[in-house]
Amino acid sequence: MSPSTSKSTYPLKLPVSIKKAAQRLAKEDGVSLNQWIAVAVAQKVGASETAAEFFARASATATGKGLASFLKSAPDAIPDANDAT
């Protein structure tokens, strides 16, 4: 069996409200809850890995040369009181 088709189990505990919503969505999609959750996790993994790859590529060529001129163009003003942490 290849790694892409091998399976592993994981005991998943969900809040009741999330499980009910996932069950409803799985039923609407005509798939089992297990299959629906597996697809949802795969989508999240794909999105996270895509974002990480994007930022890795972007940072590999970033020099910061334009940053100083960008910061110089910022207004010389005291931050709004609502912006304070």
Explain how this protein is built:
The chain has 85 residues and is an all-alpha fold. The protein is built from three helices and no strands. It has helices at residues 16-29, 33-61, 65-72. Helix 1 (16-29) packs across helix 2. It is elongated. The relative contact order is 0.05. The model has no long low-confidence stretch (mean pLDDT 89).
List its traits.
elongated, about 80 residues, mainly alpha, 3 helices
Low-pLDDT regions: none
What is the string of SSEs from the N terminus onward? HHH
How is the quaternary structure best described? single chain
E-strand count: 0
Beta-strand proportion: under 5%
Describe the main β-sheet briefly. Answer: none
Mean pLDDT: 89
If helices are DSSP runs of H or I spanning 4 or more residues, what is the number of helices?
A: 3
Briefly note the structural class of the backbone: mainly alpha
Rounded to an integer in angstroms, the radius of gyration calculated over CA atoms is 23 Å
Helix content: 55-70%
Gap between N and C termini = 54 Å
Q: Characterize the overall form.
A: elongated
Short summary:
By secondary structure, this protein is mainly alpha-helical. It has a domain at 14-60. The protein has helices at residues 16-29, 33-61, 65-72.
Helices and strands, with pairings:
Blueprint (H helix, E strand, L loop, with lengths): L15 H14 L3 H29 L3 H8 L13
